[in-house]
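A.,

Following up on our hallway conversation. Structure tokens first:
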């Protein structure tokens, strides 16, 4: 199970970590046995990958995001975390894109089935944002807080150490405020950083976060630093311009299954699966059997899949959703409506990734607004 968050009243007072001491935090995580993953530049985007040195962070870079477009830009300063969420999410390390869930060997007595150990070392996430923390909490309900827990996710989640970073800016595609998931981090982290001009405001969220912080060169935070941190957070709040009205959203969507808007959006949608691949909460997967050439060994592999793939809805006798209209409707109504029935929470955290990385710029907030304005 994931470590429980300490109550706010039990947290240590905020402290300061000098920017030149950020490497000390990364080194402490590595000494503790964690594989540190965080933001870095790759192929024209800020992605999440393994880090060994703070020089690998996207210092001085930011991104401009609008529907269907993502562009890197230089910042006027040398901020380490002065960007918005990119195409990657932390989901890939907790619920891997491909995993071997079982294997079978041919023996003299017949086939012998066995489980496969997940050999990955524990991860430390450096740079998780508030919407990312909310997405992890959503997936916890999917993979842990259910009758049948996923063993791969459960182990990786229990061992994961999270260093969150408060947002200091918002993209035009962000709508976390509408989903009550950000932009400020409130819970779900071991340590929290807020980047200031010359240091990081450093906050502890759990006992193991406190244990790791004990070996770092921290100093008390004064009132000026606390005021600067508050201003950083408020700047992000002020920049969130996109909204999604969630009032009675379940009834609005499930009561409009024959709305003409579904056909209109289907004329634009490519059914490319981009929105589900970048989404930090989507969990559709498929399972296939893969045998070796000798015929003596077979593995059962789970892979990410998408409800936008035409054969994902195949049932005995045929495909259930053979039109893009039906597949888009399934995705949006599940994400914002029937997910609530399953898990008592929305499947959307307002990160805006699906809007940015849609090749044709489909914006789910606009689709919901259109359905709400003209009921079927």
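Then the amino acids I'd put at each of the 376 positions:
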């Amino acid at each position: 199970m994931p470590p429980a968050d300490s109550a706010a009243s039990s947290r240590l007072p905020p402290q300061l970590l000098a920017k030149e001491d950020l490497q000390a935090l990364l080194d402490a995580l590595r000494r503790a046995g964690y594989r540190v993953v965080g933001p870095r530049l790759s192929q024209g985007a800020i992605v999440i990958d393994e880090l060994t040195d703070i020089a690998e962070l996207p210092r001085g870079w930011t991104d401009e995001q609008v529907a269907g477009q993502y562009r890197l830009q230089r910042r006027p300063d040398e901020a380490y975390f002065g960007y918005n969420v990119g195409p990657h999410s932390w989901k890939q390390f907790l619920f891997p894109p491909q995993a071997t869930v079982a294997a079978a060997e041919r023996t003299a007595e017949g086939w012998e089935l066995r489980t496969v150990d997940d050999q990955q070392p524990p991860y430390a996430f450096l740079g998780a944002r508030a919407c990312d923390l909310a997405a992890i909490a959503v997936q916890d309900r999917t993979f842990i807080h259910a009758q049948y827990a996923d063993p791969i996710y459960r182990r990786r989640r229990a061992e994961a150490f999270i260093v969150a970073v408060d947002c200091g800016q918002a993209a035009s595609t962000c709508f976390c405020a509408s989903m009550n998931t950000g932009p400020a981090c409130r819970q779900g982290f071991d340590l929290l950083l807020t980047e200031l001009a010359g240091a990081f405001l450093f906050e502890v969220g759990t006992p193991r976060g406190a244990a790791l912080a004990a070996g770092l060169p921290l100093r008390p935070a004064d009132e000026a630093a606390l005021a600067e941190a508050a201003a950083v957070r408020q700047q992000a709040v002020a920049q969130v311009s996109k909204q999604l009205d969630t009032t009675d959203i379940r009834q609005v969507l499930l009561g409009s299954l024959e709305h003409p808007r579904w056909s209109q959006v289907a004329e634009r949608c490519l059914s490319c699966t981009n929105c589900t691949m970048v989404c930090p909460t989507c969990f559709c997967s498929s399972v296939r059997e893969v045998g070796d050439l000798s015929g003596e060994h077979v593995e059962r592999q789970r892979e990410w899949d998408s409800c936008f793939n035409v054969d994902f809805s195949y049932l005995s006798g045929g495909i259930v959703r053979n039109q893009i209209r039906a597949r888009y409707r399934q995705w949006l109504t599940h994400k914002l409506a029937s997910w609530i029935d399953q898990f008592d929470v929305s499947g959307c955290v307002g990160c805006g990734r699906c809007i940015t990385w849609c090749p044709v710029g489909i914006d789910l907030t606009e689709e919901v607004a259109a359905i709400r304005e003209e009921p079927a």
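The mean pLDDT is 94. Curious whether your intuition agrees with the design.

B.
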